Amino acid sequence: MNSTHQIFRPLIPAACVSFRRLNTTKLLPCPRPKALKHRHLSLQTAQNSKWAVRLSLLDQSPPKSKPTVDVDRLVDFLYEDLVHLFDDQGIDRTAYDERVKFRDPITKHDTITGYLLNISFLKIVFKPRFQLHWVKQTGPYEITTRWTMVMKFIPLPWKPELVFTGTSVMGINPETGKFCSHVDFWDSIKTNDYFSVEGLLDVFKQLRFYKTPDLETPKYEILKRTANYEVRKYSPFIVVEGSVDKLSGSAGFNDVTGYIFGKNSKMEKIPMTTPVFTEASDAEFSEVSIKICLPLEKDISSLPDPNQETIRLKKVEGGTAAVLKFSGKPTEEIVREKEKVLRSSLIRDVLKPKNGCLLARYNDPGRTKSFVMRNEVLIWLEEFTLD
């Protein structure tokens, strides 16, 4: 990695596969007529990128001999092998032709050697976390993967997390049965051509500083990140809950914090977590509650009872939520405006937002400068699928 832009390579999902368990010389014929149903996905993706069209095997002349590529086995292989993308086992370069073309919006390589060197650099500097969502055949000689990549930018003191989600379109050489092209598409930008200034700006945008306390938070996985919001899948968590007058309000904060500070039936002190949620359950924001998350190892049946009738314990079942992050003091006017922006974006993207919303506040307003505060507006989704 000699050029500056290669440092930010956020996407390596589908490139890293191994043929340790796959013998390409014994692949059986596989007509796969059902794959033609997915061809529109491949063509639509390729149309978004001129260089993707040039790389596409589908546009090349037919092979001189009849290929015998079992794409089903390649799909299964990727499911098994990609989990080793950044672990000690690593990958096996024999899954690819030596002259394989890799492209994403800010990086390109024309050999498997260059690509593997890039992966080694990322493992050392960025400590990436990679999650594979699905692998599908999208053409006669093409496989598409969907993934999430989270990288911690170690060189900066606050170590911001860079989040990228998207798809990788992988071309298969019908003569060798190996991958010969790999084109990445990020969900967060429209211009995925190399070199994408929009892609570079998307990287720098994520480097800004948000102050996030080193406290336990509800567990979630990022399914998709667009230019305006994230889609997260939350695991269930338990809260102590009370009433409050408005989304930006804190009238009931002392009551719910009193519970974890020992004002409960066992006088038990419970560790503080983050964020503090306020939730409006309807579109008019007529009923608002304040919630503090309890440690994840706690079970609601073993928790002490609240001393005050105005607060209660509740299990939040989790689910899929769209999240918009912002800094500054979260006044009622600002929170409502952010909710409108997020809801409009979801409707535009043909998603189904539920009524109401949550405000997540991560910082103590008395001890945190407003420009580094981390606030989030969350809206639960009726349903969400990663197509």
TrEMBL record:
Superkingdom per UniProt: Eukaryota
A Pfam family that the UniProt record links to this protein: SOUL
Annotated InterPro entries: DUF2358 (IPR018790), NTF2-like_dom_sf (IPR032710), Reg_factor_effector_dom_sf (IPR011256), SOUL_heme-bd (IPR006917)
Stated family: Belongs to the HEBP family.
Name recorded for this polypeptide: SOUL heme-binding protein
